[in-house]
Specification:
five-stranded antiparallel sheet, 241 residues, Jelly Rolls, 9 helices, Arc Repressor Mutant, subunit A, 42% helix
């Protein structure tokens, strides 16, 4: 077990890489966008992110970020999830993580750390994934459409225009998104906009500007869709962390 600090004062991007150990990370400030070959997900304060050893990924921090990362060797026998994901965490889990951090380097307290880890693993197993993940289509053309929407959430091109741009029929584009991501094209696009908006919420931009940058012409519509996804308005979501 090893715990390291995550701290950057501005935008930071890592190259694609993988680790020999699994990683569990949590933030006190900012957000991290993680991309794997199959999906993209976002870790914010109030959540914990996990991915197993040897998972190829890159990380992007749009602005100032502060947090910690717990590395767990697969040989330790710690039964953390086999799949990557973002989970909502409560004060007890963060207290466990803080206690682990405080005792990380004390060789005399190994049994105590092992006991804390067992409790942490049990608590994490009770959590549900947060709606902060987007699966990517496997088809190259549909993946290009997804990339365009992720890179430019304010894109005004219609589904028909996007399909034509990348050499697909609307029917095939719809089929590929449902088949590969489990979401309809319109639902995936909406999810991409909402996830993209988190970076501007945490940057402190006014909600009207966040809505515009995320591709919503109506602020009320953006707030309502955000509330449907997270059970809170953008302002309430930021205040909880």
């Amino acid at each position: 077990m090893k715990i390291t600090a995550i701290e950057h004062d501005g935008q930071h991007i890592t190259d694609w890489h993988q680790h020999e150990s699994g990683q569990l990370f949590w933030l006190s400030h900012g957000l991290i966008v993680i991309e794997t070959e199959l999906e993209q997900w976002v870790v914010t304060p109030g959540s914990v992110g996990w991915f197993p050893a040897h998972l190829l990924h890159s990380a992007r921090m749009p602005g100032k970020v502060k947090g910690k990362c717990l590395y767990l060797d697969p040989s330790s026998g710690t039964a953390l999830p086999a799949d990557s994901g973002v989970y909502g965490a409560d004060t007890f889990i963060f207290a466990l993580l803080e206690r682990l951090s405080q005792n990380e380097g004390d060789a005399s307290r190994m049994d105590y750390r092992d006991a804390l880890l067992k409790v942490l693993v049990y608590e994490l197993a009770q959590l549900s994934k947060l709606p902060l993940q987007l699966k990517f289509p496997e088809d190259r053309r549909a993946r290009s459409v997804a990339g365009e929407l992720l890179n430019n959430p304010g894109c005004t091109l219609s589904q028909e225009q996007l399909a034509k741009k990348w050499g697909l029929s609307v029917r095939n584009l719809s089929r590929l998104f449902i088949q590969d991501t489990g979401l309809s094209f319109s639902r995936w696009r909406q999810q991409a906009k909402i996830i993209a908006s988190l970076r501007w919420i945490f940057a402190g931009l006014p909600v009207g500007e966040v809505a515009f940058l995320s591709g919503y012409s109506n602020v009320s519509t953006y707030i309502e869709i955000f509330r449907q996804r997270f059970g809170k308005t953008p302002g309430q979501f930021k205040e909880q962390v």
